[in-house]
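Following up on my earlier message about adenosine-5'-triphosphate. Here are the inputs again, as you asked, copied directly from the submission form:
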Amino acid sequence: MAGSGPMLEVKNISKNFGKVRALRSMSFELEKGKILGLVGDNGAGKSTLLKILSGDLQPSAGQIYLESKATRFKSPADAMKKGIAIAYQFLELVDIAKVWENFFMGRELTKRIGPLAFLDVQRMKYLTAEAIAKYGHTFDIEREVRELSGEQRQIIAVTRAIEANPEILLLDESFTLLSLDGRKDIVNFLGEVNKKIGITMIIVSHDLELIKTLSHYIMVLRAGEKMFFGHTDKISIDQIVKYMLP
Ligand SMILES: Nc1ncnc2c1ncn2[C@@H]1O[C@H](COP(=O)(O)OP(=O)(O)OP(=O)(O)O)[C@@H](O)[C@H]1O
Ligand SMILES: [Mg+2]
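Thanks, got it. Here's what our run produced:
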């Protein structure tokens, strides 16, 4: 993607579900390589916004621009093609499948031997281990995902989402299940991913400490409306909470 201007611009985006106004004329911009922490109470519209940005939902009104170019995402596959990847909270991981099986689920690699196609198990294992090792982690890729800790699962989901080299990574997560150490691991990991590949990120979390530590910018939503958007330095956790509450 070439061009100037912000990586992402959202302009007057609204989304209605019948009478529910999940997003009300929302606008913001995000520069390339920055992390935006998106916070708000239950039902504030966070997931709705990410679903619109990942092609899962169509907005009722408004425009999206990628590097100043007006864009529409017809489907998640279309958004992916345009450089946007989303990692939902653990949802895309299958508990009883192994780490490497999860990594390649739905995009399995095959090899041909004569007229027959076989799963290329060796190559999938190798590539999974390599992708995970890139960020300094080592864990047994033969283990079933259900045996892993919350942060390890998170690392797999994110590593998988960034394998296709997206420009923008969206994370809709609840990190609150994590221990303090686990949270530190995730902050380090995501910060490193952001620095290493200069990827732009929008991260949804109820963990305000994590959002404060990790994000360059913070946006607070309440009942579908933008209450605050600004530099992380410009807002305290107490102020975030005030914006979140009615
Ligand atoms: N598919 C849908 N059909 C009808 N209403 C919906 C649908 N999806 C979301 N909503 C409504 O839109 C509003 C915003 O929901 P959304 O899921 O975006 O909130 P959220 O900020 O992600 O909340 P949470 O923190 O609980 O995940 C809520 O009132 C919700 O009930
Ligand atoms: Mg949500």
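One observation from looking it over: Helices lie at 46-53, 76-81, 99-103, 121-133, 150-162, 180-197, 208-214, 237-244. Hope that helps, and feel free to reply on this thread.
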